[in-house]
């Protein structure tokens, strides 16, 4: 695998949850990390370069990418989970989720891929979910639709650039402990019951720690013969 020492890694949504754990894991692996989030305060304490970046802001993303030097690894981690079925979903939710969960990745890749192609090497990681084309999950219509699109995006980029030194893979977690998971559980009105149900659907009988997903991100950054894959990390949910 690739030595990450000194490799430049750019990550979105690094203030909390999987993004934060991944930022810490890439720093431990010796990478030169540029950690970004819309919540600049949340990046405090990360021992790396940090920048406020709203991935919904097309101009800000273009300016941010233009100001970067060579990038070896891009980890598109930003995403939002809407609850509900197709009959409960609004067009505004669809538009917001598609913009944040899909088009924001397109913006980041458009900004960073040209430099990777010039140097003939690069690795792109996109955050999907098992709630996507991998598995139908109740009450996750908008989310699953957009996370399935992430897998199409990932395979398309992988296919177009496989012969030019670019790898592009997606990470598909099951349920992962994070601040937004706790918000979703609280929003059901019965945190304990919702948590028990989420634990029960993972055959390992527990929810993942963000650090476990971060380890997969670091692995994929080093996995020099792996591209176009949707790698599930789900405690056995999709067995
Ligand atoms: P989280 O939802 O708790 O945190 C999300 C982070 O995204 C926050 O730091 C927030 O400030 C940032 N963010 C929101 N809007 C942004 C924007 N416009 N620009 C830049 N940053 C923005 O973290 P999480 O639960 O670990 O989720 C991270 C990713 O992992 C998401 O794509 C999510 O869909 C995916 N995921 C999470 C789970 C889970 O169970 N937690 C499972 C599968 C996939």
Account of the 3D structure:
- Pfam families: adh_short_C2.
- This is 2-keto-3-deoxy-L-fuconate dehydrogenase.
- Belongs to the short-chain dehydrogenases/reductases (SDR) family.
- One of its GO terms (molecular function) is oxidoreductase activity.
- Keywords: NAD, Oxidoreductase.
- With 239 residues, this protein is an alpha/beta fold.
- The protein folds into 2 domains: 8-173 and 210-232, Rossmann fold (3-Layer(aba) Sandwich), CATH 3.40.50; 174-207, no CATH class.
- The chain has 7 helices and 7 strands.
- It has helices spanning 17-28, 58-66, 91-119, 141-161, 179-187, 191-200, 210-222; strands spanning 8-11, 32-37, 49-52, 73-76, 122-127, 166-173, 230-233.
- It has a 7-stranded parallel β-sheet with strand order 3-2-1-4-5-6-7, sandwiched between helices.
- Helix 4 (141-161) links the parallel strand 5 and strand 6.
- The radius of gyration is 17 Å and the shape is globular.
- It starts with 7 loop residues before the first strand and ends in a 6-residue tail after the last strand.
- 45% of the residues are buried.
- The mean pLDDT is 98.
- Residues 12-13, 15-19, 37-39, 42, 53-56, 77-79, 81, 100, 127, 129, 173, 175-176, 178-181, 210 line the site of nicotinamide-adenine-dinucleotide (NAD).
Features:
single chain, 239 residues, alpha/beta, Rossmann fold, 2 domains, 7 helices, 7 strands, 15% strand, binds nicotinamide-adenine-dinucleotide
Report a brief summary of the structure:
The protein is built from seven helices and seven strands; from the N terminus they run βαββαβαβαβαααβ.
């Amino acid at each position: 695998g690739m030595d990450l020492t000194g490799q430049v890694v750019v990550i979105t949504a690094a203030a909390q949850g999987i993004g934060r754990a991944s930022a810490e894991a890439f720093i431990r692996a010796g990478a030169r990390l540029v950690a970004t989030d819309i919540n600049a305060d949340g990046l405090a304490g990360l021992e790396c370069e940090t920048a406020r970046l709203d991935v919904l802001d097309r101009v800000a993303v273009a300016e941010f990418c233009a100001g970067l030097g060579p990038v070896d690894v891009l980890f598109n981690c930003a995403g939002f989970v809407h609850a509900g079925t197709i009959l409960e979903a609004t067009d505004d939710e669809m538009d917001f989720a598609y913009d944040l969960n899909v088009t924001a990745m397109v913006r980041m890749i458009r900004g960073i891929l040209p430099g990777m192609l010039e140097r003939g090497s690069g690795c792109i990681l996109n955050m999907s979910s098992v709630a996507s084309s991998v598995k139908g999950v109740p009450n996750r219509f908008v989310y699953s639709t957009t996370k399935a699109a992430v897998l199409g995006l990932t395979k398309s980029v992988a296919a177009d650039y496989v012969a030019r030194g670019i790898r592009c893979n997606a990470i598909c977690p099951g349920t992962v402990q994070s601040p937004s998971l706790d918000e979703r559980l609280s929003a059901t009105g019965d945190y304990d019951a919702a948590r028990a149900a989420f634990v029960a659907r993972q055959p390992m009988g527990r929810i993942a720690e963000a650090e476990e997903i971060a380890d997969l991100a670091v692995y994929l950054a080093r996995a020099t013969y792996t591209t176009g894959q949707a790698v599930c990390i789900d405690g056995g949910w999709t067995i």
